[in-house]
Amino acid sequence: MGGSLAGLLAAHVLAGHADRVTVVERDRFPDGTGARAGVPQGRHPHVLLQGGQLALDSLLPGFLAELGEAGAPRVGLPSNLVLWQQGRWIRRVPPSTHIYTGSRAQLEGLVRRRVLANPVISVVEGSDAVGLLGDASRVRGVLLRDRSEGAGAEQRSLAADLVVDASGSGTKAPQWLAAIGAGAAHEETIDTGIAYASRVYRGKDGALGDGTLGFYVYPNPDHVHAGGALPLEDGSHLVIISGLRGDEPPTGDAEFETYAKRLGHPLLDRWIESAEPLSPAFGYRRTGNVRRRYDLADRLPAGFLATGDALCTFNPIYGQGMAVAAMSAVALRDALADRRRTPTTRRVQRALLGASRLAWDISAGADRRMPGVVGNAVVADKAGDRVAEWYLGRVTERSPGDPVVGRAFRAVLTLSEPVTALFAPAVARAVLLGPPSPTPAEPQEAPE
Predict the structure, then answer these.
(1) Contact at 8 Å (CB) between 35 and 42?
(2) Distance (Å, rounded) from C-alpha 81 to C-alpha 119?
(3) Among 175, 323, 344, 373, whose CB has the most other CB atoms within 10 angstroms?
(4) pTM over the 0.90 mark
(5) Rounded to an integer, what distance in angstroms lies between the CA atom of residue 234 and that of residue 371?
(6) What is the maximal distance between C-alpha atoms in the chain?
(7) Cis peptide leading into 78, omega within 30 of 0?
(8) Cβ-based neighbours of 313, under 8 Å, separated by 6 or more
(9) Is the CA virtual torsion 128, 133, 135, 137 positive or negative?
(10) Is 85 left (phi over 0), alpha (psi -120 to 50) or beta?
(11) What is residue 5's three-state secondary structure?
(12) What is the pLDDT of residues 94-139, one digit of tens each?
């Protein structure tokens, strides 16, 4: 259910184990790499983190080369971006990792072309999933309704041995499972109320300076406004600005540019003044972290899995969604290929949750410290959690200026290394024994 990145990649994996895989998509797929309708954040920045790159190239060999040939910007961190974090400018040392910052539509279109070329996979477009078939012991398919015929359209059944919910953060699967007598999944929530707005600009010279592809200001409890400019595949830049609940960025043209002055440094504001706007501003406000613990649900029926945002939704400001979708598909592939264990529904669902755990820890851990945060998973009440937060606070404080700490920090943030990388001996010594290293007083005009 769902032709999103998570749905397409799950279908790709399942095609190696099934006679037929059907992707049910509520909208209609665009031709080529055009934007897909119904993507809630399609007009906003997307980044493909290192962990997602490794996963995608493993699932679709040669994909990164194809992405590069299509013009997706490959941005080295921290050399190619001017970055502000914890009140300090990050030293622009040689890159230890890279991200891709092209549009969501481009990346998803390339994936869609590769995945749907498989004859085992078929698509039902323009159809809403409106319920599940089966009972509390097993899901046996889905109920569909043609969207073009409205809410009164006749429902039809699509039988299936396995149903995968990849319908996104607005999933109705919890209610549908309850309707067939299955147990409910506990939902963990953490919501800062952060909202953002985005607008496309073209810089006067098409770039931002020698070796500079963009810039970004990260939020923190003492400076809640964030934003920056990230390059797109056509040479333009997507500008994003954000604020917390009650201080949401406006979408009016003049008001958008005025709000950009709140970032605490005039860097972005100055660039916008000389750039040409290419689009209106678009806002987005559904940014809470939500994790559905199907792995703990009582009476979880066989034949049902959740993946992508339908399983775990992150604050989009951290750019983790596409990477986790790909990493979840790798987890699904590996769980099904494991000959040592029978791939039961609960076991595979645990593997999918495990693929999203690091991203959850990063996003939820950072958001817990923001002012005004709400939710049932906000409080870190275990002594171990409090110690970990203290240590990670020191990591964050030292990462802008210390190359050793910064390299490990970026590896974890880009989901390419586990959090244990932050406790390696060289990193721990710098974190526990050394003072924060000096950082530039002003943004560096070029990489070191």
Answers:
(1) yes
(2) 42
(3) 323
(4) yes
(5) 37
(6) 68
(7) yes
(8) 169, 288, 289, 290, 291, 321
(9) negative
(10) beta
(11) helix
(12) 999 999 999 999 999 999 999 999 999 999 999 999 999 999 999 9
